[in-house]
Design a protein that fits this description.
The chain is mainly alpha-helical. Helices cover 74% and strands 0% of the residues. The chain is built from eleven helices and no strands. Helix 7 (153-187) runs antiparallel to helix 8 and helix 7 runs antiparallel to helix 11. The longest helix is centred in the middle third of the chain and has 35 residues, at 153-187. The protein is globular and about 55 Å long.
């Protein structure tokens, strides 16, 4: 008997026609590479657009100034990510909303497991951020000072409203809902399906924001690797945790956006 939590079973909500479509219209390796790298690239592209606008407005050192706008460049990237997922859902015949719907029965168990994953993964993320900062920086507080910068009040409010929800709805579904299952089917390797999306999820932060400082890039690229591995393994083993981990992701990003709002003016 096949378990509904088997990692090779399509996400809940996918129709029989969708299963057939996924088999016959599975994405190419090139498309999976695009999916894995698109956020890394788009973060930098949208930051460059912000820098051009700031330059046109006469802001000194526009690239440095553009780094503070990373919550909104992440929002723009997430809009593109959502469009990508919608496109692939239509082409491959799967249900995008299945990523966001709880699977019944078993909700109580899933909530408890998701909380456990959040506790373990969040602890690893916080610990990595603290432990890695002294490795990359002479003064560890430099790391957060570069990341958490003030914005105009209107932009900070917009970031609180848009950044957490847009990223939460797209980041985990892209890496661990869309790419992971197809990478596993393509390679036949559970290790590849867990490791590769986790590594790229972590690496994407190297350009969010893109500051041309190797210490900062190294810190950002590596600080979420442990958390990403926990998420990748958990969602590979039990994909029905996705809706709850999306909520966890939202709350974590909301906290970051509020931190920026508190210092903005």
């Amino acid at each position: 008997m096949v378990s509904p939590d088997d990692p090779m079973v399509p996400p809940a909500g996918m129709s029989a026609a969708g299963v057939a479509a996924e088999s016959s219209m599975s994405p190419s390796g090139r498309l999976l590479t695009v999916a894995l790298t698109m956020r890394l690239v788009l973060f930098a592209v949208f930051q460059a657009i912000v820098a051009v606008v700031l330059f046109a407005g006469g802001v000194p050192e526009p690239w440095s100034a553009s780094a503070a706008w990373w919550p909104l460049t992440a929002t723009a990237t997430s809009v593109v990510t959502f469009v990508f997922l919608r496109w692939r859902a239509r082409v491959e015949g799967f249900s995008l909303t299945a990523f966001y719907r709880p699977v019944r029965p078993g909700v109580a168990k899933d909530v408890l497991l998701a909380l456990a994953v959040a506790f373990v993964g969040g602890g690893i993320a916080v610990g990595a951020s603290i432990l890695l900062a002294p490795i990359f920086f002479t003064e560890p507080t430099t790391a957060n000072a570069l990341l958490i910068q003030p914005l105009p009040t209107w932009a900070a409010v917009l970031a609180v409203a848009l950044f957490p929800v847009s990223v939460a709805l797209t980041e985990l579904p892209l890496y661990f809902g869309y790419v992971q299952r197809r990478l596993g089917a393509r390679t036949g390797s559970a290790a590849a399906a867990v490791l590769i999306p986790a590594v790229f999820l972590s690496l994407q932060h190297a350009t969010l924001p893109l500051i041309f400082d190797l210490s900062f890039i190294g810190w950002r690229a590596s600080m979420f690797l442990g958390f990403a591995l926990v998420l990748a393994w958990s969602l590979w083993k039990r994909p029905r945790l996705m809706p709850y981990l999306i909520v966890v992701h939202f709350l974590l990003d909301l906290q970051a956006a509020i931190s920026i709002l508190q210092i903005s003016g």
